[in-house]
Amino acid sequence: MDGEKNKTLLLVEDDSVVSMVESMQLNAEGYTVIQSRCGEDAIAIMASGKEPIDLILMDIDLGSGIDGTEAAREILKKRDIPVVFLSSHTEKEIVEKTEKITSYGYVVKNSAITVLDASIKMAFKLFEAKTKEKEKNAALRKSEARFRNIVEAADEFIFEVDSRGVITFISDRIRDILGYDPGQMAGKTIFDFTESSETGDRMKLLFAEGLRRRRSFRNIEQKCLARDGSRKVLLASAIPFFNENGETEGYQGAVRDITESKRGSESLQLQSAALDQTEDLVTTTGLVRSLMLLYDRLYQNPNENGVSVREYLTTLIGKIAGIFPHKAGVRIETRIEDATLNAKILSPLGLIINELMTNSMKHAFGDGSKGEITVTVSKKEKRMSVTFEDDGPGLPESVTIEKSPGYGFQLVHMLVKR
User: How far apart are CA 320 and CA 324, in angstroms?
Assistant: First the structure.
């Protein structure tokens, strides 16, 4: 039998002879039919939930009680179900009246059983399509809400600008950093919030050169003015995105507030604004990718509490290693006990792993030598321990993470202290 068959229909018809004949015809087509003589009885049957009704065939004229349109309206208030109207009326106003209630079909009485059967099949297909669309929209709304929550849980604010530098998206985290509502920044450029017009002009030149050369930006330190007039020091990284023709449409990235870090440690000299060279582009791609991968994993994950540490770190490590052309000579081993963590913890952890992986691939094995990297994550009660090792030549004795001249180790030290 067809997929629409083996369904249970509620036939609402006040004429017992007509009801019996139609029931027999529908039984012959493979349907189970439950008969009802009036609108009130049909409403009661549906309200009881005792019968597994899949579709209602509703006569419009039902005698002295409520008519079929009123009965259908009451039923649909409580349950979404396909209703096909049966009537001897062909007047335009009657048909339009039923269409305002539901739009699954209108069959003129005494039509051949093939016509009625075809209408029922079409109603089921239409109902299935509408149901899938509702589920899709509901899932999309839930995913969008989850994504917004994840973005706002991170310390960074996420942004997107077009090729003119006009802000097309900025996350709510901007309120905590600069004091502006996202709506107040819509339509303005990223240059409008710099500390001075001279700084804004320099940023415009840097931005234009980046677009022309299709370059990423890494750790651009920028002084901006908050809404209350205070000065903020921000650190931004961004990657370009392109249209279907390969043309640069704008930039997407993440911005961190480093104002307090700058004030608290004069030794922490973060990079000044400059376009990345080829070597830095590799590191930038890994940095932004680690954030985007985290948001992607959390966005798609049905678990609203976070994402699997093992899944996130294993994927991230693989993607970072894949950036380097000599990756084949480096064996990477991960020993990760699984747990679920939220974005506030995984975001800095991802940045730390990115910096350490990049440092090992560039400096320990950058000359093409073979080696091994091991990442271990272990947990005990409510604490987790992360160990990163490589068997390269090691750091000079004069260099430590706490006192490193390089930005990468300084960033790791700052994130670990958090």
Answer: 8
Distance CA(202)–CA(383), nearest Å, equals 46
Q: Determine the distance from the C-alpha atom of residue 390 to the mean position of all C-alpha atoms in its chain, rounded to a whole number.
A: 35
Distance of alpha carbon 58 from alpha carbon 13, whole angstroms: 7
- Give the C-alpha separation, 358 to 2, whole Å: 59
How far is 343 from 364, CA to CA, in rounded Å?
A: 30
Residues 6+ apart with CB under 8 A from 6: 30, 31, 32
Of the candidates 199, 207, 209, which has an alpha carbon nearest to the alpha carbon of residue 167?
A: 207
- Residue 26: is it exposed, middle or buried by C-beta count within 10 angstroms (0-12/13-18/19+)? buried
Tokens of 8: 């249970």
Amino acid (one-letter) located at 130: K
Taking only the tens place, the pLDDT of each residue in 394-416 is 877 777 766 666 667 777 777 77
> CB of 68 within 8 A of CB of 59?
yes
17 touches 59 (CB < 8 A): no
Candidates 28, 32, 35; CA nearest to 13 is: 35
Helix (H) or strand (E) holding 295: helix 278-300
Q: What is the mean pLDDT of residues 187-196?
A: 86
In contact, 358 and 320? CB cutoff 8 Å? yes
pLDDT of residue 47: 92
Cα gap 143→299, rounded to integer Å: 6
How many Cα atoms within 13 Å fall on the side-chain side of residue 37? Answer: 4
Nearest to 303 by CA among 133, 176, 143: 143
Q: Name the DSSP letter for residue 214.
A: T
**8 A C-beta contact, residue 236 and residue 227:** no
**How much helix, strand and coil, in percent to the nearest 5, is found in the chain?**
45, 25, 30
Q: How far is CA 48 from its chain centroid? A: 39
Q: What is the DSSP letter of 36?
A: E
Of all residues in the chain, what percent carry a pLDDT higher than 70? 83
Residue 357 · residue 392 · CB < 8 Å: no
For residue 416, which amino acid is it? V
* pLDDT recorded at residue 33: 92
Q: At 221, which amino acid appears? A: E
